Amino acid sequence: MTIGLLQMEMLLPNTNSLKDKRSLLKRITNQVRKKYNVSFSELSDQDSFGKAHVGVVTLSNQSSRCHRVLTDTENFICQNFDVLLSNRIMEML
Predict the structure, then answer these.
(1) If you count Cβ atoms within 10 Å of the first and of the last residue's Cβ in the chain, which end, N or C, has fewer?
(2) Cα–Cα dist 83/60, whole Å
């Protein structure tokens, strides 16, 4: 069994308040969970409206499947939302 973890630090250029940030992260969370069946959570920077540090976790019996799901999730977020990825770490446990 493999647990895949993706941590992303994102810049949110069009958020001008915490309300904007939370609204954007809620849309991302709902769409990512629905499309990829992963767990998604904000890890830190909760009080900073210009950036977000989030984690995405998936579980599979094949590490290649975990890697593909996390890569697809990352691409989906970058292509469909107004975010800039400043750092990412992907781990298979």
Answers:
(1) N
(2) 28
Q: What pLDDT does 45 receive?
A: 76
pTM (two decimals): 0.87
Question: Are 64 and 24 contacting, i.e. CB atoms less than 8 angstroms apart?
Answer: no
**Long-range Cβ contacts of 16-22 (<8 Å, 24+ apart):** 16/49, 17/49, 18/47, 18/49, 20/49, 21/49, 21/50, 21/52
Closest CA to 58 of 15, 5, 20: 5
CB neighbour list of residue 64: distance below 8 Å, 6 or more residues apart: none
